[in-house]
Design a protein that fits this description.
By secondary structure, the chain is of the alpha/beta class. The protein contains 13 helices and 14 strands. 41% of the residues lie in helices and 16% in strands. The strands form four sheets. Strands 9-8-10-11-12-14 form a six-stranded mixed β-sheet, with helices on both faces. The chain has a four-stranded parallel β-sheet with strand order 5-4-6-7, sandwiched between helices. Helix 4 links the parallel strand 4 and strand 5. The two termini are 36 Å apart.
Length: 386
Amino acid sequence: MTTQLQNPKKFKYEDVKSTIVQIIDKMPPGSKMPSERHLARSNQCNMQTVRKALSLLADEGLVERRIGAGTFVADPNQVQPLTKHVGILLHDKADNYALRISGNLSNTAREKNITLHTQLISDFGDSADHAIKQLAKEDCPCAIVPWLPPDQTQQLGELVRRSPIPLNVPVALPGLDKHYFSDPRTFGVSGSRYTKIAGQYLHQLGCKTIAYVGPLLHDNVFLERRIIGYTMFCAEYELDNQCHLVNREVGRMDRLAKHLAQYRGSLGVICYDDEHAIRLMTAMHKIGMQAPKDFAILGWNNTEAAQTTDPPLSSFYGDYEHPANWMLKNAIGLAHGNVVQEQNPKPMYLKIRDSCGSSLRSSSERDELLNQIGLTEKPHQGQDHE
């Protein structure tokens, strides 16, 4: 859905534009739109207002106006947007998840004949400022930050506020909602929901004690949402809350492993990401505990490391192409003074491997188990298939 940037006064064409987007969302590419006269009548406005709205939508690549023929729903693979160059600010600490998003951004941009200009940055301070100046020289009217280290949310917000070109970011920042590629009201919702579902999944597998393991960070909305989901799960199933946040101190994960060892045979663990899951599996192995015999464990993001660890790690993941597409759409929209945000985030999936033990069950048993909690296992392009 596309909405105009907030103004002190709400103009009629903004409302009309929003209404037309709702029509576009229900029509396949290439379909002919209702006439301007029909749109004016249904929106109780004059035709000039409709033309203004359609002009903005044409700039954003959502419709194609053909002289003498009418207005048609655009094919995103064929429309040539006004913005030909888009910048990417890629943090040098980028993990596998960030690199996958960046890879999908490249594919999406190539399909739209947009040239991406990537600048590697070491922080959201001087390094990012220098990179943005370079992107501006390369005719990039906007840029995308596809990922940020979880402890640098505040620094990213400060960068967005001072940047001379608009930035699309992967998180909803206070007071900067328009820079997030999705409806801010949906931010973190899937994290909470699927953390709760992860708990249900482990509980269905027979785990009596279910822990959550994540990073010790402040002001991390992703983490906060997932902890909410985990806490809700514990309350609903009347389980002890075993939320453990660990820093990178040497030995911290080893101490946690020794604590969790008392639940051998009945323990399930939900992790913030694959990295924390693999760290815990390594620490458990040091004290003679092996997944899935002694405990079940789930990761998040389904990185390449999840496939190669011993045992291979079951992990939640989403569709990388979908957010990459909307990041690019919103960046281009911001360059033209508009907000183009995703309204309906895609579901997440679970890649089942050996770390939770369910891979040992028959396909029918696994399908029944997943259906009970409203979850599916869907192979993704670039992932290993069973």
